[in-house]
Amino acid sequence: MDFALNDDQLAVEGALDKLAERFATSPVDFHGFALVSQELDNELEESQYFEIAAIPEMGPLSAALAVERLARLPYTAEIALSMLVRPHLDLELPRPIAVIENGRPGRYVASAKTLIVIDGDSVGIAHPTPDDVEALPDSLFAYPMGRLTGSPEVTPLPAEQAEAVRNWMRVACAAEMAGLLQAAVDATVEHISVRKQFGRPIGTFQALRHRIAECAVLTGGVRWLALKAAWSGDAGDAALAALHAQDSATRVIYDVHQMSGAMGMTLEMDLHLWTYRMKALISELGGRSGQAQAVAQHCFGASAA
Amino acid sequence: MDFAWTSEQESFRASVRQFIQDNLPDNWEHIAHGPASKEQSAFAKQFCGALAEAGLLVPHWPERWGGRDADPWIAFILAEEMWMAGEPRGGQYMNVNWIGPTLMLFGSEAQQERYIPPMARGETIWCQGFSEPESGSDLASLRTRAERVGDVYRINGQKIWTSYAGDADTCFLLARTSQGKGGISIFLLPMTTPGITVRDIPSIIGEGDIHEVFFDDVEVPESARLGEEGQAWEIVGKALSLERVGIPRFALASKTLADAVKLLQSRGSFGPGVAEQAAKAHAACEAARLYSYSIIDQRAKGIIAGAEASVGRFATVICERLVSEFVVEHVPEAISGAHPLLLAHHQRGIVAGIASGAAEIQLNLIATQFLELPREPR
């Protein structure tokens, strides 16, 4: 085992760090939820970042590292599905890609060129026209949310590919969540380091120190599980990573908002950009109980039902 | 980044598993009950002797001390397999993990010659004289005194909650040689020295695990001091960095969870609600496993993990708790003795957040050193 980045991964990380500099600060006049950057999307497309999972010396692990890194930015774009799910389908799928799960609204649905349509046990692919979709600009989720209003033709995927979609969606969810968790913890650490009450930074009070430290432990665990799952491609690893991601996020979101107080309630602090992205990811693929059933199936050798 | 085992590591793991299968007696699960029982300690000497003969007790030690300079991965794979089997090395795991290596770093030649070979042969049990009635997490406040009288030190005081003291041959003792945090020294103290009294304290962990140790005018020569006077803090810091991720508790927790799940599945009691709890515990075990591996990877590259070791330790505390609670809720008969290995895990797991530095102290270290938060006022 080797937990350090290899030269190729270091090169990707260095390039992404450089790219990220331009998207690292939210505009001072932005007081909304979905801070999307088409420029970021274009840069990633032009530099072929959406192809790295398919490059042998890079692979899905490098893609997961990229997803985690980019998820820490206040700006977002449709990244995780294109980087981690699309390469595992032997199909030409134009992006952006979005998921419609059991008819619910989804991220990037209104701009998607490809829809992954999950309906119960079946998974299919659709290519919607603008008339098939509608944006939901009032959503609190910090992604551009949309819903399906029409009935585009859905081509069902064979069972094996449907399973691959679920597995890699879990990896994508965990990798993105790892970055979101890290950004939320970083923002909270900064806040409690400078916010003073009773004459001292509130981060010197043990009640908060322990709480944020536990958040950091959970965050790092999600990252390792996501990277391991991306490396192995194993269905059990993917389910464990997604479960730990959704479970940890559920707790960390509450804690970081509690520690950030009223400041975290305002749209002046970026915290909501990460926590309300996490809240969107928490419900994916059946939420925690859905991932737990996948763990039971793949790790405990039986269906939970 | 690569999560694969090498073929050498895989074949080593297989050889350790085979050794365990060949050397654990049929009634092992009953011996394993109580990690420091007389029966387990006696078996551990026999088992560790056999391990030593097979070259599996201290493979990561230098050749000079009976090892083969194997890298830290080998030591950790060995530890994982031992813990999954219920830790048949008993208290001797401490010798292997940190007491031996600490003596190699800081011991005099005479101390090394006297104490390391018996450890490498699996013949000796040590105890750790750290905590006192008034001094646990705040170790710098300890009161046991070692007073220089002529050419000896005279030791007076009391240690408490000392594991393995009832059977220990030697104590790794912290005592005060002068005032202040810098006034603490370490002594390697044979437990047969006159003036030492050991009293067993009954505990949840089982027979023979926790003790009080009293020191009344115990005299030791200067040659029993490890390192210089006042060097304890530096030495203990090094020893604890070896110990914090020295115990792969997640491996036993993970095995325990798998055993409990199999039991529940066999009786048709593994419904979706139970499975969700089991899955969360399993994910926590795997997170702790990867954290621990990441620290072993650093160690293999010659990097001493700082606050990352505390992060990994706390991840292990989380998984121990989830597994322990799962067994209590869903296999409660284990706590009444129906499944000795599940009970043994419960008794070992209960100390995960307490032994070798309380979990809350780890959280403080994470806050200060890992997250770089401003320090608490003192």
Automatic annotation (TrEMBL), chain A:
GO molecular function, one term: acyl-CoA dehydrogenase activity
Lineage top rank: taxon: Bacteria
SUPFAM superfamilies: Acyl-CoA dehydrogenase C-terminal domain-like
Residue ranges of every copy of the Acyl-CoA dehydrogenase/oxidase C-terminal domain listed in the record: 167-281
Keywords: FAD, Flavoprotein, Oxidoreductase
Stored InterPro entries: AcylCo_DH-like_C, AcylCo_DH/oxidase_C
Coiled-coil regions listed: none
The protein's name: Acyl-CoA dehydrogenase
Species name: Mangrovimicrobium sediminis
TrEMBL record, chain B:
Organism of provenance: Mangrovimicrobium sediminis
GO cellular component assignments: plasma membrane
Name by which UniProt lists this protein: Acyl-CoA dehydrogenase
Domain annotation Acyl-CoA dehydrogenase/oxidase N-terminal: ranges: 6-123
InterPro entries, per the entry: Acyl-CoA_Oxase/DH_mid-dom, Acyl-CoA_Oxase/DH_mid-dom_sf, AcylCo_DH-like_C, AcylCo_DH/oxidase_C, AcylCoA_DH/ox_N, AcylCoA_DH/ox_N_sf, AcylCoA_DH/oxidase_NM_dom_sf, Mycobact_Acyl-CoA_DH
The entry's keywords: FAD, Flavoprotein, Oxidoreductase
Domain Acyl-CoA oxidase/dehydrogenase middle: 127-218
Keyword hit for Hydrolase: no
The family this protein is said to belong to: Belongs to the acyl-CoA dehydrogenase family.
Acyl-CoA dehydrogenase/oxidase C-terminal domain location: 233-369
Oxidoreductase listed as a keyword: yes
A GO molecular function held by the record: oxidoreductase activity, acting on the CH-CH group of donors
Gene3D superfamilies (alphabetical): Acyl-CoA dehydrogenase/oxidase, N-terminal domain (1.10.540.10), Butyryl-CoA Dehydrogenase, subunit A, domain 2 (2.40.110.10), Butyryl-CoA Dehydrogenase, subunit A, domain 3 (1.20.140.10)
